[in-house]
TrEMBL record:
Keywords: Amino-acid biosynthesis, Lyase, Metal-binding, Methionine biosynthesis, Zinc. Its cofactor is Zn(2+). PANTHER family: METHYLTHIORIBULOSE-1-PHOSPHATE DEHYDRATASE. It comes from Nonomuraea terrae. One of its GO terms (biological process) is L-methionine salvage from methylthioadenosine. The keyword Membrane does not apply. Zn(2+) binds at H100, H102. One of its GO terms (cellular component) is cytoplasm. Binds 1 zinc ion per subunit. Residues 14-198 form the Class II aldolase/adducin N-terminal domain. Pathway: Amino-acid biosynthesis; L-methionine biosynthesis via salvage pathway; L-methionine from S-methyl-5-thio-alpha-D-ribose 1-phosphate: step 2/6. This is Methylthioribulose-1-phosphate dehydratase. InterPro entries: Aldolase_II/adducin_N, Aldolase_II/adducin_N_sf, MethylthioRu-1-P_deHdtase_MtnB. The keyword Nuclease does not apply.
Amino acid sequence: MDSSSDLALTEAGAVLAAEAARFASFGWMRGTSGNLSMVTSRDPLRLAVTASGLDKGELTSSDAVLVDDSGAAVNGGRPSAEAALHARIARLTGAGAVVHVHSIAAVAVARRRLDGIVFRDLEMLKGVGRAAHHEDVVLPVIENSQDMAVLGDRLEAARNPLMPAVVVAGHGLYAWGADPRQARHHTEVVEWLLELELAEHPPGPPRHRPSGQGQP
Ligand SMILES: [Zn+2]
């Protein structure tokens, strides 16, 4: 690796560490969960991704790993297991940064909205570039998988080009933007929407239970 790409990775690592500390402070990256990335080069595609297994509230500028368009480490290091999905989102959407958090609201709401979550008539929808009134805005939900290729296929098939986020059922949220700041704003707005949904409609039993179970 030459010194300029070293510097780029360190600078990206500092940005990702600051973003991760913010999300960790919100309780969205508990344990060592979640991961963040930002594009450092478009052609060939290269991303700085948070390293695997670290506390996201304690990252430093040296805790990012450079990966290629398949999510594989370019110069050593151990990227997050989900790096391949970050790279695929960057390829697919043209995003410059991707945020993945394991938030309670995303998991709780997706349990009973497996076909997607519909929002409407909310001022906050402007925060993801949608109209505040008279428009149904769909946040897609996809089934989880440990295979990043399968998960990527599902994301690509379900993606709403007008919504910069997807919820993975039983897992968490992916959101993206042109740069880390916009990806952060999209993440926070979508989380707000999910928390509102949760507050207005507390979850009942998961949908897969036989009907009638637990009835008096
Ligand atoms: Zn995850």
